[in-house]
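Z., the sequence and structure:
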Amino acid sequence: MGMRAALGAFALAAAAVMPVMAQAQTVTIVREVDSDRYDPHRSTARGASEVLFMMADTLVSLDFDMKTIKPGLAESWTASPDGLTYVFNLRKDVKFCDGKAMKADDVVYSMKRWINPETKSPVRWRAGKVADITAKDDYTVEYKLKEPFSELLYQLTQTFAVVIDKDNVEKLGADFGVKGFNGTGPFCWVDWQPRNEMRLKRHDAYTWGPPISENRGPASVQEIVWKIVPEENTRLAAVMTGQSQVTQYIPYSGFRTLRNNPATKVIESREAFWTYFIGFKIDKAEVNDETLRRAIVMAVDQAAIAKNLYFGEVEPAYSYISQQALDWNKGLDPELIKTNLAEANKLLDQAGFAKGADGFRQRNGKKIEPVLYTFTGSTWQKLAEAVQGDLRKIGVDVKVQLFDATVAWGKLATQEFDMFGMSYPYISAGDALNLYFRSANTPTPNRMNWKDATTDQLLDKGMAALKDEERAAAYGEVLAQVHKAAVWIPLYHEPMKIGYSSKLAPFKAHNIYGCGLYKGLDIKFLK
């Protein structure tokens, strides 16, 4: 779709949903894909976290430097010298959107639902190995671990650890996070139309925002509308024409346009990391050969992708995490698999993957044509097509299947595919590796079916380490293992960049879980 058509398309769509924009009390945020649901314990989608950060709060918060822990719902906390017991002292002025006071029992319920096996949370490991969580009184929570967890406070800043309302969860049942959500955040649930929009209203009683926000509450705008706009030029047009006020889903071809347009601005932050990759389900017949996977990784031209698809706005990735991330194993640098078509073809020839008359390789008479599952939307469609084209140069015929985000997460929890496209945020090696490479995390988020006892032991060692060097050494060994096994095709590392209307006051971009707008407290119109 061209820019002129995009302008018209968005104007027509916006007219139907934004009749009160002239009052400057509504901020519309356009994004590429929706979430499957807004249950903090059951969704790992960035789309869910973007909204959940605005509707709910966590015990502690993370500063913009992505390193410093600050107060949240807990105004203070202590940790025992052995790292096994944390005591959180709660604020006494917090209320849910329905007006009910938040107390320690609400925190305990939320945390225990998170770690309850019946919840089937794919990120329960982020809570650490919990011995018990108890309310010592109405405003004191004791969090006891079976063994130290070096990243506990960081994990408690994530949306998986938000405080939710037991009555609301029980009333809605399976529709919790689908038809409603009662949180303590600066905005409250109004309505969700999947694959279209999520509408939030200001929580007028909110005054307990994290200290990193200039505005502690209430929010400066009355309403926020998260609108799904899959087509990238339409998103760009929306911001340029003022139909949307902000987006971090900017087509890379549009950054120069936004920077040169007096009606728009771009804010950037490189304080955290977001990496795009394609993973292999390593026990599937199509990709269970390490030599085949290694050749496939070699065939992908990350530098060309960064230049041609993303106009040099991203960094080509040859590692699974950025080399600037905490606990990166520097010894891996010379071992990373780099683009080399000639070597990839040589490896496959030597391993007996013969080319047929059609130019595609076969094994035991069967064509090598792995199935790749990923998301609809311009980002993954273009990425998948680029990788598909690169792999055809070595005779591998990848079959791409794209799914809307509302169903993709379910599809990606199955065993139906051979490869999958994914992107993820992290602050450290441990944050990334514990998520994706624990045996217990199959079938999701360990969609590779990587099950290795040594890996699990090293991850446990890193989590429980009380010394930085011990943690880094353990995680470094895991990185070496999974890189050598060619479990992923790393594609690119993406910095945080947000485009916004010049009618908005300048604000900082946060990087927590890739949710640049965080709680939305500092979003406001210029007077």
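Residues 468-484 form the longest helix (17 residues). The domain at 1-32+186-270+496-527 is CATH 3.40.190.10 (D-Maltodextrin-Binding Protein; domain 2).

Let me know what you think.
H.
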